[in-house]
Amino acid sequence: MLFKRLLSSARTLGDKYIYFGNPSLNRHSFLRSDQQFITNAIKSKDAKYLLFNNLLPIADKEANKFFVTGYDKLGPQLTKEIDQWLNFNNDPLSTNGARPSLLVHFLGLSEKNGKLETARESGFQYKAYHGTPYFAIDIVKSSQVLKELESNHPNVEPLVTREEVNKHLNNFEASIFAQGKMYLDWLSTTQFCRGCGSSVVPINAGSELKCTSTKEKHCPVKEAPVSNASFPRLDPVLITCVVNQDKQVLLTRLPKFPQGLYSCIAGFIEPGETVENAVKREVWEEAGLHVQRVEIIQSQPWPFPANIMIGSVAYVDTSELDLLHDMELQDARWVDKEIITDIVYKGTENNDLTLIGPGLDFGIANDKTLATNLYKYAVDNIL
């Protein structure tokens, strides 16, 4: 029975990529260190630059899409600063720790229906590799590029909230945004080596950071036997739909949630924990329930700021709640199959991205979240 359910889960959840989780691009991570490839790709007439301003994606709100530009399409200042960034990327240690004004990360080459675009379709080819090159670029430290953007495209503006991202970016764009935002955030906030405190500089098209300390200075990062560079941090987070023996699901609410919003239990996975043990700990701490079994279902990148959400179903053999351990929850309630089914399939989305059930004053997050995918999985396969 469990095996059949896991197969059903793969079909149900695999037919449609979760929001932020569409494998939109082939990242070609092995080409990030190929300086000639990066030079050709970023200067290609077919390259697409997705611009950020202080980590906020810049969008054309009227067209409901990411604003896209290229090497010589926005203005001479952007072209000039891309050239400066290229010089830096080709020789990052020559600047004594100084960084270029632009933050840049190579995202990958585009794909169509699971296959790379042909050279004729995209116009870009490097050795055996074809496709449209995509780059994420944050221009917050370049006042001249910002002026070019405002002058030539007065109608574009940054998407400030998750609600705006949901509204204006489809899953293809949202998934590229998630990748770009997490890398740019890391490049922006990581200025010094965690091993010795020296300044760090981006290398390999914004995918790694290199310590600039001299050979005479001891640095445990540079001297590490496996890797002598630093990579982005990604924090694992559990999120779990709790199901009891009465075939009910648990809805929980934090004080910070918008009015009427309930969700799954969630929390950070601590060092030394398996996902399953973290689920058991978190469910007991927040709801006082003892989990008998954990079934891992699906995951979701979450770029606020840099998490990977690992979704599961937690099975408990009692319904008695105790919210007084860490007192994190404002409320928790069990709901029957009929109620959660109506919310999932008949709910109306409000301005807070909450699906409010018919005739109810509460609901769950919209279908672009892992929490609601887990509730849907429970409705379709468990309850």
UniProtKB/TrEMBL annotation:
It is an enzyme of class 3 (hydrolase). It catalyses: a 5'-end NAD(+)-phospho-ribonucleoside in mRNA + H2O = a 5'-end phospho-adenosine-phospho-ribonucleoside in mRNA + beta-nicotinamide D-ribonucleotide + 2 H(+). Its cofactor is Mg(2+); Zn(2+). One of its GO terms (biological process) is NADP+ catabolic process. One of its GO terms (cellular component) is cytosol. Its EC number is 3.6.1.22. It holds the Pfam family NUDIX. GO terms for molecular function: metal ion binding; NADH pyrophosphatase activity; RNA NAD-cap (NMN-forming) hydrolase activity. Keywords: Hydrolase, Magnesium, Metal-binding, NAD. It comes from the Eukaryota. Residues 232-357 form the Nudix hydrolase domain. Gene3D superfamilies: 3.90.79.20, Nucleoside Triphosphate Pyrophosphohydrolase (3.90.79.10). InterPro entries: NAD-cap_RNA_hydrolase_NudC, NudC-like_C, NUDIX_hydrolase-like_dom_sf, NUDIX_hydrolase_CS, NUDIX_hydrolase_dom. The keyword NAD applies. Belongs to the Nudix hydrolase family. NudC subfamily. This is NAD(+) diphosphatase. It comes from Wickerhamomyces ciferrii (strain ATCC 14091 / BCRC 22168 / CBS 111 / JCM 3599 / NBRC 0793 / NRRL Y-1031 F-60-10).
